[in-house]
Amino acid sequence: MQLRLARLCLDCEEVHDANVCPVCASETFAYMTRWIPAPERRVRPRATPDEDPDDTVRVVARPATPEDTVRMRPARTAPSAPPPGLGLLKKSVVGLTAIGLAGWLFRKKS
Fold it and tell me: What's residue 98's pLDDT?
C-alpha cells in the first residue's frame, strides 16, 4: 500500500486504502499523509518558471491542515429559482383543465 493512498479509519483506527473500512464498514477516515508527509514521487522535481532550468528545486511536502480540507471542499450553492415562464405554464394548464371540467359538468343533456 502506498502512503499517499493509505487511510486511517477514525472509528476503529484501522489503516486501509478502500472507500470503506474493511473492519467496521465505516466511511469516516483521514489520509495518513495528513500526519506523515509523503516523499516526492518524481525523480527530478519541476522547476518554477522564474528559476533557471539547470538549478534543481527542492520540494518539501507538508501535511494537510484542517484549513486545507475546508478549502478543498466544494462550495454549496443555493438552489436556483425556477425560470419565470414555468409558473405561468403551470397556471395555464390548471386553468384550462378547470375550464374543461366545468364545461363538461354544466353541459346540457339531450
Answer: 92
Residue 9 domain-assigned? yes
Q: Which domain holds residue 17?
A: 1-40+61-73
The residue assigned the cell 518524481 is 42
Q: Cell 478502500 appears where?
A: 18
**Domain annotation covers residue 81:** no
**What was the pLDDT predicted at 88?**
82
pTM of the shown model: 0.36
Is residue 69 in some structural domain?
Answer: yes
User: What is the total count of domains within the chain?
Assistant: 1
Say if 1 falls within a structural domain. Answer: yes
Q: How many CB atoms lie within 10 A of CB 14?
A: 15
9 near 23, Cβ under 8 Å?
A: yes
Per-residue pLDDT tens over the stretch 69-79: 555 555 666 67
Burial letters 20-49, b for 16+ CB under 10 A, else e: ebeeeeeeebebbbeeeeeeeeeeeeeeee
